[in-house]
């Protein structure tokens, strides 16, 4: 489990650079908190965790990444993951498969990786070709090796406030809030975006009970989506203490929609 926690911390780090948080006591005195700086702090922590694990006599953690097709963004993203893994002392491999691979062949590969004792963490890079059922693939990954936190068991445990593998971007958002001291207890929060891998988990983590096994933020959360009228969205953001823009739409939320003193977390990358 310690090896898996190091892998999760690494993947959490890979998301932090995509976030920028703005908080201010007044609009004229805005402070920009660097997600990149926080990411480097987490990388240092992951490196120390890995070294402690190896020095204790355990094998070095290993991450397997399955990459299907030739999507340039996916290839770039996976390269960043494996480079970050190497930087903190985690070994990794990228298994490349042609876009015409059948779902059955991909499921067979995942089964082999699930049962390979050398593999501590496993992720299948999304998106997948149209002929492959992404949900079936995510659910085929062993929940104990599910670094992305996409398996239905991990999603269910997250929703029940139990310890679980959390999706990296939502976990990264929570780490930004925690590490920068942004209060959430009883606060109004707007999450713009309801994707199953980003917006929904962020809302879940922010509103759930802070006294439970997996502590939540105890905030009052409003979720907006593509059918939320712009004026209604403005109404909610104007009274929000925290706004998380996770819709992947540039300029969806503008400065005039944010009240003074609020915190704004903008996810510059939204790939789910």
Automatic annotation (TrEMBL):
UniProt-recorded name of the protein: methenyltetrahydrofolate cyclohydrolase
Organism: Scophthalmus maximus (Turbot)
GO CC annotations, alphabetized: mitochondrion
Residue intervals of the Tetrahydrofolate dehydrogenase/cyclohydrolase catalytic domain: 33-148
Subunit structure: Homodimer.
A Pfam family this chain is assigned to: THF_DHG_CYH_C
Chemical reaction(s) catalysed: (6R)-5,10-methenyltetrahydrofolate + H2O = (6R)-10-formyltetrahydrofolate + H(+)
Gene Ontology molecular function: any one: methylenetetrahydrofolate dehydrogenase (NAD+) activity
EC number: 3.5.4.9
Sequence ranges assigned to domain Tetrahydrofolate dehydrogenase/cyclohydrolase NAD(P)-binding in this UniProt record: 167-265
UniProt KW keywords: Hydrolase, Multifunctional enzyme, One-carbon metabolism, Oxidoreductase
Biological processes, Gene Ontology terms: tetrahydrofolate interconversion
């Amino acid at each position: 489990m310690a090896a898996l926690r190091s892998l999760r911390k690494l993947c959490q780090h890979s998301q932090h650079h995509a976030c920028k948080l703005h908080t201010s006591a007044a609009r004229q005195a805005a402070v920009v908190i660097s997600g990149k700086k926080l990411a480097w702090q987490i990388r240092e922590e992951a490196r120390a965790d890995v070294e402690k694990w190896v020095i204790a006599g355990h094998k070095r953690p290993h991450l397997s990444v399955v990459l299907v097709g030739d999507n340039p963004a996916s290839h770039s993203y996976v390269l960043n993951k494996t480079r970050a893994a190497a930087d903190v002392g985690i070994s990794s491999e990228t298994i490349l498969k042609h876009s015409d691979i059948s779902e059955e062949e991909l499921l067979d590969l995942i089964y082999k990786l699930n049962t390979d004792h050398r593999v501590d963490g496993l992720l299948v890079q999304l998106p997948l070709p149209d002929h492959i059922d992404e949900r079936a693939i995510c659910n085929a990954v062993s929940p104990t090796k599910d670094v992305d936190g996409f398996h239905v068991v991990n999603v269910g445990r997250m929703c029940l406030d139990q310890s679980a593998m959390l999706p990296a971007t939502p976990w990264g958002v929570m780490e930004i809030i925690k590490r920068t001291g942004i209060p959430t207890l009883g606060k109004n929060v707007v999450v713009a975006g309801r994707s199953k891998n980003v917006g929904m988990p962020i809302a879940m983590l922010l509103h759930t009970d802070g006294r439970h096994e997996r502590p939540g933020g105890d905030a009052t959360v409003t979720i907006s989506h593509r059918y939320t009228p712009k004026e209604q969205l403005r109404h909610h953001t104007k009274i929000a203490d925290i706004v998380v823009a996770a819709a992947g739409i540039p300029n969806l939320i503008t400065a005039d929609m944010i009240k003074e003193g609020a915190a704004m977390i903008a996810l510059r990358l939204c790939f789910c």
